Amino acid sequence: MLKIYRKILVVLIAATTISTNTILAQRDGDAFRTYSPYTLYGIGDMYRHGNIAGKAMGGINYGVRDQLGINSYNPAALSIQDSLVVMLDFAGGSKNTYSKSSLSTTSANTFYFDYVDFSLRIAPDLTVAVGLSPVSDVGYDIERKESDPVEINKYGDIKYTYSGEGGINQVHWGAGYRLLPKLSIGINMHYYFGSINRYYSTEFLTTAGFGNIYSESRTRISKIGFTFGAQFHTRLDAKTFLTVGAIYQPKTMLSMKKEITKIVAGDMSTDTSRHVSTNVRDVFMPQTFGLGFTLRKTDKLVIGADYTYQDWSGFNLDGSSHSFAFTAGKSHTCNFGFEYTPRANNLKNNFKRWNYRAGLRYSKTFMNCNGHNITEQSIMLGVGIPLTRRLGSKINAAVEAGQRGTTKSGLIKETFVTFSVGINIFDIWFQKFQFN
Length: 436
Hints:
single chain; mainly beta; Porin; two-stranded antiparallel ribbon
């Protein structure tokens, strides 16, 4: 029993260390977790949840039911975990983004913490999990010159800069329960927290007499929300299993407090500053419906698909002043993927025990910019590499390549490549051995 407590302590220390480092890095602005002008408004890019195995399969989650992995996005899937098993899953990655407009091209590389999850079965048919992951990311740094001849004639050359960093994280506590032999249900409680910092400036480059304007806003977020999940799982024949899963997340209004500091800098006698604190309204996590399935052929083949609907209508897109005309609407996402394992029980040839994965994702995002619905599409590939011969510990890796946006109407087209790697530690803690 003492060994068990020591293991639990190590897990908690590791999770706390990762969590603390992530929060401090975000708060101090040491690095962007994402880099995109499409994060100018609102709460930024929405994080695509799921473990690395699911991400390599196109990002499917709802119908995934695997004894060797933690599917915390549909908490009903937790109920499949064996009573003797504990699992720890954590991951990180990098993203290369190439942005192109009608006038220029840029590139950026970012590194990010992905997630950490820990799960443990505490009673017959009941498994609990705790974890930390991002929810949204903000990261951009934009500079532009005034192009309106009337403004240039009146004020001279003007330079505008916009930059932002931060995002929202979540700690989640989940539970999955096998209600009936073929039906499992689950619930996740999320604690959302984080900060978003935005900086703006207007500088008059050639004409004296105008004070340069510098503005900074710091928005802090906190709130508790919930996600409900269910899975129906059945055997179709001796070797084929079907799982149908669904999740529902109610609309959750976020508590956001903004502090704005504005400075007009001229000579020493004309400098002025202003500081304002206010609560931001109409910012929320949207109502979300998700439905998906997987078909599993013993331990050799898994295929599946997901559909997700979110309603962002009425969202407050408070952010930087810019030439983009943003509105928020409904988003629709489709995911498809499969996994193939040549021979899972072959102890002589390790490559035949590898999991080979691939998938596709298409999303009509909630963003409408300058009259265009922004869409995103990508393809994924990945592998799962067993670390031991008999237990389920693995290194999981995934690569994703995709595009978002368009160069029409003054917008930006992004081409991105992400690489993610994670370690799933699978261990047996509660087995009583006859001999020590």
